[in-house]
Amino acid sequence: MTLRQFLAKQFIDVIQWNEPEEGMLVFRYPMQDMEIQNGAQLTVRESQMAAFVNEGKIADVFGPGLHTLTTRNLPLLTDLNNWDKEFESPFKSDVYFFSTHLQIDQKWGTANPITIRDSEFGAVRLRGYGIYSYRISDPRTFFVQVSGTRGMYFVADLEGQLRNTIVARMTDIFATSNVSFLDMAANQTALGKKIEEQMKPAFAALGLELNQFLVENISLPEELQKVMDQRIGVNMAGDLSRYTQFEVAQSLPVAAANSDGLAGMGVGLGAGAAMAQTMMPSLATASGAQASSTPTRAARFCIDCGRQVPEGAKYCPGCGREQ
């Protein structure tokens, strides 16, 4: 190193970081041509943690507060370099700041439907979406497992990994829950809590804390939703004949609105035929009841020859005797 290079080298005595933008998780303090002066002041704010990294390995982690950087409060770094307590040389380590405040309103969703075995409807495909929030809880693990030696690491860099992890775990949860789709849709808050508890270990493995997980919607693909609506309609009608009558009644306004066209005529004829078929059992029952309620008169016979006398006749058609 020349004298000019030595004089140009700067010694850092104050280290701090203010997040310049939203969504930044990790920031490496710039160290090019600079060294940290022994006795420098490190300021770590409430929503941050800081780590000293020596030759790619985390040596010490600092929480919120004002720290004076000496060999006395860097025991791990001192041990790694075999420094004497009176050593006065500047530090040659990197400093990384980690943002530990909540990253809120993170969105998750199923890009493709999840096929599960439903306890009531058999195999169904589900879609879902919602939001979640998390924070960095273990900078050491996050540095080793996720961010590494990158100068900056953002929420967007982690978004795809977390979303895919959530969807994969949801598939396992749904497959083993034995809860029907209708129960899931009716208890989305409880479902979100269950998924949150199942997801926390996966987040912790990355040095993260899952703070909240919300399910905003659970639904079926459009074609399956139509089938379910029909089934619900049948259950509400009570039996197939009532459901058919309901369908016919719904189709009559359509036929009336298109009465001038062939399509309207076809709809009208179809509706009339369907209504006739559904009403025939009722009409037959009514006719039978009416016939059984009408009184019938006993047949008359001639008192002389025994021949049957027609209704209303005054004389026997056989012997001619007055009746």
What is the compact description of this entry?
The protein has 323 residues and is α+β, with helices and mostly antiparallel strands. Helix content is 41%, strand content 28%.
Layout of strands and helices, then pairs:
Blueprint: H1 3-8, E1 10-15, E2 24-28, E3 34-44, E4 48-54, E5 57-62, E6 65-69, H2 75-81, E7 94-99, E8 103-109, E9 114-118, E10 122-136, H3 139-147, E11 152-154, H4 155-177, H5 181-186, H6 188-204, E12 208-219, H7 222-237, H8 240-257, H9 262-293, E13 300-301, E14 308-309
Parallel strand pairs: 1-3
Antiparallel strand pairs: 2-7, 2-11, 3-6, 4-5, 4-7, 8-10, 9-10, 10-12, 13-14
Helix pairs in contact: 4-6, 7-8, 8-9
